[in-house]
Write a structure and sequence with these properties.
The protein has helices at 23-32, 49-61, 91-94, 104-111, 130-138, 170-181, 196-207, 239-251, 263-266, 268-277, 314-321, 342-347, 377-389, 409-414, and strands spanning 4-7, 14-18, 40-45, 64-68, 75-80, 88-89, 113-117, 142-146, 149-153, 162-164, 186-190, 211-213, 219-223, 232-234, 255-259, 279-284, 287-292, 300-302, 327-331, 351-355, 358-362, 371-373, 394-397, 420-422. It is of the alpha/beta class. Helix 1 (23-32) packs parallel to helix 2 and helix 8 (239-251) runs parallel beside helix 11. The protein is globular.
Length: 423
């Protein structure tokens, strides 16, 4: 497997980019297939390494899958779930991807037992699952932590309850939403996450026969049913990919047509901030056109749960602000270690200082190419964006992170006259 990407500097993004399905929607949807013995078909699934990891994990449980309509941007997956015979998610798979914890709720709800390894994933801070476990306990589960595993049981089934999340958690909301779909009685989740990916999960579950209301708000109500059935569902667009390519147009003084419906609705706060910085957005047939105004201005950004500014677009936005005029401030409120890309951007000539959860960026008009190292998924794309505008070439190491969340970036950029290549 290749490990580095060569980014040629001082390029301009000009063209059309089809936005793939969202990894962060596809992963919980794949976990949701566990809930029904009738299976599930998902369309517009992005062919990413994280998706492959989840399919391997589901395979260990006894779920078979078949692939159709495969290209470099998307695929359809049919999951056959009538022969699940193993209820353990092992460490050697779960350590590769934190989203593996999403099998916990569905396994417990359908089979009343499971053993799931504590998760791994990107090294961007502590990501505790205590709220998942407290929520499942509120639903009547017995939880034991032993030897790095979660042992969960609900011998008499899960019971509907009211549970308030003390802080907003996306995967926690998803796990409890799936578990409650098969619980006995009504469950009310308060202070629930409102992300579009959760609305997409709930929409799919409803098509499978679940009774859910309030998804997309901070209070979700689920009336448990005895079983769910087969459905066919199309994964929503990846708002983080769309935002990344919008920034690519801005940082290179270019223009890109993001192809896909309802992109604006997925990025309300992000688009407002990009307009402050100097990007222009125009609705077009089947998508959204993003154009650089030619003058980029500094701004203040605070990452927040949806509909606030996405933490998954913080690193890419920092690259943009490195070449904007004046001073910018970024407050990172979601993950405590999500400034690891700062040191690499400084290697490229950026002027950034970090104090606690706040980064101060003094904009410059020129970055310089350098060998840099990706520390996590979103950091990898931020360094590629910086490389596109830098003087000279940039080599980004450890780009296996990139393959966890971006489909065929070389091809998509290539269609916009931009060259990056694996070396």
């Amino acid at each position: 497997m290749t490990k580095k990407i060569l980014v040629y500097g001082q390029q301009v993004v000009q063209g059309k980019i089809p936005i793939s399905g969202a990894k962060n929607a596809a992963l919980p949807l794949l976990a949701a297939s566990i809930l029904s013995e009738d299976g599930l078909t998902l369309n517009n699934v992005p062919p990413l390494s994280d998706i492959r990891t989840m399919l391997v994990l589901l395979g260990t449980l006894g779920i078979e899958h078949s692939v159709s309509n495969l290209n470099s941007f998307s695929m359809s997956l049919n999951c056959k779930t009538d022969a699940i015979s193993n209820f353990e998610a092992p460490y050697d798979i779960v350590k590769q991807m934190r989203a593996s914890i999403l099998v916990l709720g569905p396994l417990l709800a359908r089979f009343g037992q499971c053993k799931v390894s504590l998760p791994g994933g990107c090294a961007i801070g502590v990501r505790p699952i205590d709220l998942h476990l407290k929520g499942l306990q509120a639903l009547g589960a017995t939880i034991e932590l032993k030897d790095g595993y979660v042992y969960a049981q609900a011998k008499r089934g899960l019971k509907g309850t009211e549970f308030t999340f003390p802080i907003v958690t996306v995967t926690g909301t998803e796990n409890l939403l799936m578990a409650a779909a098969l619980a006995d009685g009504e469950t009310v989740l308060k202070n629930a996450a409102r992300e579009p990916e959760i609305k997409d999960l709930a929409s799919c579950l409803i098509k499978m026969g679940a009774k859910i209301s309030g998804h997309g708000t901070s209070e979700i109500r689920i009336k448990g049913v005895s079983r769910l059935h087969y459905t066919d569902h199309t994964v929503l667009l990846d708002r983080i990919e769309a935002g990344t390519y919008a920034i690519a147009a801005g940082i290179t003084n270019g223009q890109v047509d993001l192809i896909g419906h309802s992109i604006k609705d997925l990025l309300p706060t992000f688009i407002k901030k990009m307009e402050e910085i100097g990007l222009m957005f125009e609705d077009i047939n089947g998508g959204l056109r993003v154009t650089s105004s030619g003058k980029l201005n500094g701004t203040k950004i605070t990452t927040e749960p949806f509909p606030g500014f996405p933490t998954d677009l913080q690193a890419q936005t920092m690259s943009l602000l490195c070449v904007a005029s004046g001073k910018s401030l970024i407050n990172e409120t979601i993950w405590e270690n999500r400034f690891m890309h700062v040191a690499e951007l400084i290697r490229m000539g950026a002027s950034i200082s970090v104090t606690g959860a706040r980064a101060t960026i003094i904009g410059k008009h020129q970055l310089v190419g350098a060998p840099v190292m990706a520390t996590d998924l979103r950091a990898s794309s931020s360094l590629i964006l910086a490389g596109l505008v830098a003087k000279g070439n940039t080599i980004v190491d450890r780009v296996y992170h990139l393959d966890r969340g971006y489909c065929a970036m070389e091809e998509k950029f290539g269609n916009c006259g931009v060259k990056i290549e694996r070396i």
